[in-house]
Amino acid sequence: xxxxxxxxxxxxxxxxxxxxxxxxxxxxxxxxxxxxxxxxxxxxxxxxxxxxxxxxxxxxxxxxxxxxxxxxxxxxxxxxxxxxxxxxxxxxxxxxxxxxxxxxxxxxxxxxxxxxxxxxxxxxxxxxxxxxxxxxxxxxxxxxxxxxxxxxxxxxxxxxxxxxxxxxxxxxxxxxxxxxxxxxxxxxxxxxxxxxxxxxxxxxxxxxxxxxxxxxxxxxxxxxxxxxxxxxxxxxxxxxxxxxxxxxxxxxxxxxxxxxxx
Amino acid sequence: xxxxxxxxxxxxxxxxxxxxxxxxxxxxxxxxxxxxxxxxxxxxxxxxxxxxxxxxxxxxxxxxxxxxxxxxxxxxxxxxxxxxxxxxxxxxxxxxxxxxxxxxxxxxxxxxxxxxxxxxxxxxxxxxxxxxxxxxxxxxxxxxxxxxxxxxxxxxxxxxxxxxxxxxxxxxxxxxxxxxxxxxxxxxxxxxxxxxxxxxxxxxxxxxxxxxxxxxxxxxxxxxxxxxxxxxxxxxxxxxxxxxxxxxxxxxxxxxxxxxx
Lengths: 262, 261
Prior knowledge:
By secondary structure, chain A is mainly α. Chain A has helices spanning 8-31, 43-52, 63-94, 96-110, 118-125, 130-153, 157-165, 170-208, 213-222, 226-257.
């Protein structure tokens, strides 16, 4: 801000320096034994454990199998949130009465952290797939609803007036005017949902699951296998990042197609 | 109150009444929803008076709530005190940004909740582990928003201040921090939300006291009334702290027109 923009060379050097400092400090702390190696394994230990877990099962499955089982639950939860949240948001954007009824309930529930649904989720749907799916749903639902609603509420009035004048029935109005106009906002909401859902999945699996990456990490914590815990964190981070990148792409693609600025 | 506002209030209250009536009907009157799945109003009341008076899971509701509140306050404070200055610094200096960013990019995709097992390994089931994970979760929004806040300051403001020969420290205190403060507060709101989510999760995974611990015990005892009490407590605490933060924001940003409504 105060200084001139950096040249590429400077930026790369500084960035590499930052990374080197981070990894160097980490290695130093664990190899010298300042922090016992059992609790802070070296970066190399973690990396080799990460790849080892591809073939060696831990807590009943290999890492890819845990990831697959996590991802399946995650997909169910997020899809469910989108399938219920987006239509409800659009309907609320169109029918004022529905808006006035749902909004107070929604505002009341908003302050309860999604993760606090864990006990009821376990009680109602068990700890297999149902419970975690419900918690992912609780995390992913609000942004779907809110963004579809806002998108529908802030459609250009001219479009609505034109549709009205042509006597468009409600359902067609929602599907052919509100939905396309709200699409960019909905996609942005989906991206937030996907992130929050992933976060909720991790929480749910730490508490009530019998498989999945979170479950693997809790088991590893129980047997003081720090390398496995950290390998799980890496796997979670990578997948979270991939999901975000994919949805950003989808968002940019949609915006380009609509002739909006990316 | 405007006519539209009145209409909203009437419908809102009717909805609230409807939900409570439905709750009575499905649980207590018809037994459509069994007490093993969701408590009736009477069961909820019994649980609430039990935990308020005799206590549950080792303490009364008030001391569970206060303990959780204390941990959130501490984790949040540490995160804000470290995150906001780092964000401001990264916004101020491109060199610092270039140095810190790659590390940030590696750590950021790991959801805060994924740090819980590691925190327990390192620090055990006590308060320190919770403060650590809250710090991690609340740190990121604080940094990002403080950073964005500085980068969005109008250039002429900075140039004018510099032209007047403002010394470095005064520049930070009287120009940068105030100009970035609306964004900083946006970050604080997100940080606060993240703090509660993380605390509840951490207490559900392992704790000896706190609201999340109440939820955990109630789940193990299959005690729906107490689960509902715990959830509502989480909601009330989250709401109350958000209101307090909004109040502080209004006072701190009284000069800012955009924050006034």
